[in-house]
Amino acid sequence: MPLPMLSPEEQLASLESLMSTLLSTSQTTAAALICILALVMANLPAFLEAYKVQATTNAKAETKAQLHPTIISYLCPSLPPIYNGACSMGCDFINACNLYVGLCSEQFSDDHITISWALTFMQQGRVAKFVACMFQFSGIKKLCQFISIFADKFYNPNNIVNALLVLELSAYYQNSCSINAYINSFKSL
Distance between CA 164 and CA 42 in Å, rounded? Predict the structure, then answer.
């Protein structure tokens, strides 16, 4: 059965009634929020003082190598990029991994977990074959040993020599390179 059409006067009366109800609800909500704000503001100094005492106590108890637990819980560092095996980015990849592990050290209880985690970012190109060999033969137990092997295979071994050759061959001229690329070629010197 179709709904009857309301006359304009009935529609207006209905809207006025609805607006009145909404205004009343809005005023009640505003009054409640003002009361809550007053309570928060009244208790804020005591809360801040208690937090300072707790933070001071915790800071004295923790070692220099650890960050404050409340700070750690708020850190969300970005993950390292997916690494494709390019020698020019090998050092950057390891630095990104070390930075993440340093900031989230509570998630990495031993070297095996850290190595396995780093391997998950090596998914493309020749580094994927390296990962397959790592899982197949898994003789590496120490993180320093892993980094050493990774550096041998994926760091650019001749950074300094390459930069010197560029300097000598180009006779210190920019040639057709952009200024940023030209300046970046001397970073390893």
Answer: 67
